[in-house]
Each structure stands twice: as structure tokens, then as C-alpha cells.
Amino acid sequence: MRTNIVIVGSGPSGLLLGQLLGGIGVETVILERSSREHVLGRVRAGVLEQGTVELLEEAGAAARLHAEGLPHAGISLAFGGGLHRLDLTALTGGKHVTVYGQTEVTHDLMDKREAAGLTTVYEASNVALHGFGGETPYVTYDKDGVSHRIDCDFIAGCDGYHGVSRKSAPERALKTFERTYPFGWLGVLAEVPPADHELVYANHERGFALCSMRSAHRSRYYVQVPADERLEAWSDDRFWDELRRRLPEQTAAAVVTGPSFEKSIAPLRSFVAEPLRFGRLFLVGDAAHIVPPTGAKGLNLAASDVRYLFAALREFYLDKSLGGLDAYSAKALARVWKAVRFSWWMTTMLHRFPDTGEFGQRIQEAELDYLVHSQAASTALAENYVGLPY
Ligand code: FAS
Ligand code: PHB
User: Fold this and answer.
1) What is the atom index within ligand 2 of the atom nearest the CA of 99?
2) Is the Cβ atom of 292 under 6 angstroms away from ligand 2?
3) The domain 5-72+95-177+269-346: what is its CATH number?
4) pLDDT tens digits for range 210-247
5) Which regions form coiled coils (predicted)?
6) Is the CATH number 3.30.470.10 carried by domain 182-267+352-386?
7) Is 320 helix (H, G, I), strand (E, B) or coil?
8) What is the pTM of this model?
């Protein structure tokens, strides 16, 4: 078999890249190791930057997003018993974010791909990348006990942190940067109305908490837990009690509790791999970088990489120029590192660190107090949160 581009991974980055390329007549095959149902069963991101929405519009996959997504003009920071709203739209000259679950983005992109008759091979095992250091790369994989080979022009590694693509890069050519955090996020989904009409990020001496949502009837909440915490230790009652302890009184009183239908613990880490290109292999999204979800950047950074790589591939196929592909890694990484910094800063400002002590708690509260009363500091947070220019 032959195609223009083999995309490894059917997450948001692989699907979005495939949809955009399909729109300009560039053929792709997506190889996904899990089943379609497993991919759709994941609960992850919830906040889309305007640039991500625009890319989904360009891919023709934004109809449901505009019908069901929730435009948000602000967020609130809770600390010292008070609640402080940041008017993102006023601070950024009119920008906003859209609350729309990653699961829905993935579903919409899968539907578009299937409607276009584009090929995705689910439950593809033993995916292996070959020849990407030269001009004739190819990918092999097994499906239902049969081995297959796909020859292609390029390989897009959209297979996440645990994927095969980054691990296929020549070790001497790859540099990685990492910081792990001594805590994780315990998240629940419940069919209950949200406690606030916008997101609430809470700093509390017991630990961080986040009030988010998926719709006016479905809430997404998180509390910080130790990195080695066991999910079995958390009944719904314990979760709701701990969440309300970490929120200001008026917000806690507005929390509507109910049975969770999803409960999971996500570890937090900052990770970047450089460069993002190895000959005819390109790394995209979580395959190349991971951010703590505090800044709501993970999914949006995946879309950012897709925007740069799509523009470069369009230049190659339509203008026969390699310039965009040569510039992809540096361009994408420049924006990645700014989002990695912002996510690290939000995480260090809002979470309880084991060794931070009373002094550290006071410093965090002082930084938050300065932030919500300084136009300059609030603007800096707002312009990063809604998404920096590309
Ligand atoms: P993904 O990991 O989504 O997709 C990679 C795909 O490749 C997967 O379908 C995988 O099955 C497949 N794959 C892996 N190895 C393969 C192989 N060898 N062969 C073939 N296929 C292979 N971001 C936020 O902004 N906010 C959040 O709250 C948030 N919460 C998160 C919670 C968790 C538990 C995790 C893991 C991530 C979270 N993220 C969050 C980040 C997340 O949204 C990612 O940024 C986003 O999924 C990135 O998309 P992709 O790059 O497509 O990678
Ligand atoms: C979510 O709704 O899952 C969410 C929102 C904002 C974040 C992280 C997660 O910063």
C-alpha cells in the first residue's frame, strides 16, 4: 500500500491533521493501536483556545462545537476565602475561550473522517517506523494477525507520550526536558449543574481544586492529590466534601453533588522533546510535549503543532517547497515552550507543594493578591490563557 502521509495515532492531533490534509487532497492513513470506542472513552481536556476553534472550523468540524460549546469570557481565582474574577475578554481586547470536551472534538473529527471515506486502521499493533532518515519512509503494523506495510512521503507521529514515534527517533539526536510534580489531579464527571458559570481555579492550604464543566448540566471537578494516591481511597462523598473544603463559602454552597460517572487520577508533568523533526518523521502534540493541565494547554498545544505542520505540508505539496518543513520544529517549539512556562507558572502558583510550608503558602497568596489587583499581571495571565499568537 502507498499513501502520502502515515499518521500514527487517532487522538485529536492525528485526526485534525488528517482532516486538514484531506481538505487539500493530500492522502493520509491513520494507524491507531486502540479501538475507536476506547479512544472515545477517554475524558481529558475541556477548554479550547480561539485558535483551536478556528482550526476546527477550517477542518469543517466545528458545527457541534458552535451549537453546544460554551464561550467563556472569564475565569475566577479563589484564594484566602475570596473569589476574584478575571475578565479575559476585557483584558485581551475581545478574546474568549470555549468550553467543549476533548471527547466531543475527537468524536466530531472521527465522524468527519469517516464521512470523507478516509482510512483509519484501529487496533493496529506493532506499529514500526522505517526509512524516515532517507527519502522513502514506510510503516509496518499488524492487524488481525496479518502484517502490513505502507510506503509514504512522510510520517506524522501523533501517538502521544507513550507512543512509538518519539521512541523511534535516533537517541543521540533527541534531547528531552522534564519536571515531574509531587501530586496529581483526581477528577470526576457528574451529571449535575456547575457551581459557577465559569471556571474556578482554587488555591487552598489543603490543596488545589478546579471547578469546570462540560455543559449546563454536566460538571467536571478536580482536586489535587498526592502523586501516589489510590483511586479506591476516594468515595464520591469524600470527594465532594474535600472539594467544598477547598472552595470559598459562596462557591462551596453552590456545588450540587451527585453520583460521579467518571473518576480518574492524572499524573502531572512538564515534558518537552527536541527537535520535532527527524528527516521525514515529524512529532506532534503529546508525542513531543506534556504540560500540567493547570493552564488548559495540552490539547491546544497539539492543535498548535498541527497548524504549523499542516501549513508546512501544504507548502510542500502545493508549492513544492521544503521551507516550511525545515522551519516546523523551531516554529512549533517556540510556542510550545511559552505554553510550558505558563502551565508551570500556573501550577506552582496554585498547588500545595509538600515542602512549601506556611511561608510558601503566604507567598502564593501574595502573588495571587497582586495578580488580581494588577492590570498588568492580570493581562499577562489572560493573554496566555486565551492563547498567544501563532
Ligand atoms: P493523544 O494521547 O490524545 O492521542 C495519541 C493516540 O495515539 C492515542 O489514541 C493512542 O491510543 C495512540 N497511540 C499511542 N501509541 C500508539 C502506537 N504505538 N501505535 C498507534 N497508535 C498509538 N489537556 C488539557 O488541556 N486539559 C486537561 O484537563 C487534560 N487532562 C488530561 C488528562 C489525562 C489523563 C491525559 C493523559 C491528558 C490530559 N490532557 C489535558 C492532555 C490531553 O488533552 C492531550 O494534550 C491531548 O490528548 C493531545 O492529543 P494528541 O497529541 O492527539 O495525543
Ligand atoms: C477540564 O474541564 O477538564 C479542564 C479545564 C481547565 C483546565 C484543566 C481541565 O485547566
Assistant:
1) 2
2) no
3) 3.50.50.60
4) 999 999 999 999 999 999 999 999 999 999 999 999 99
5) none
6) no
7) coil
8) 0.97
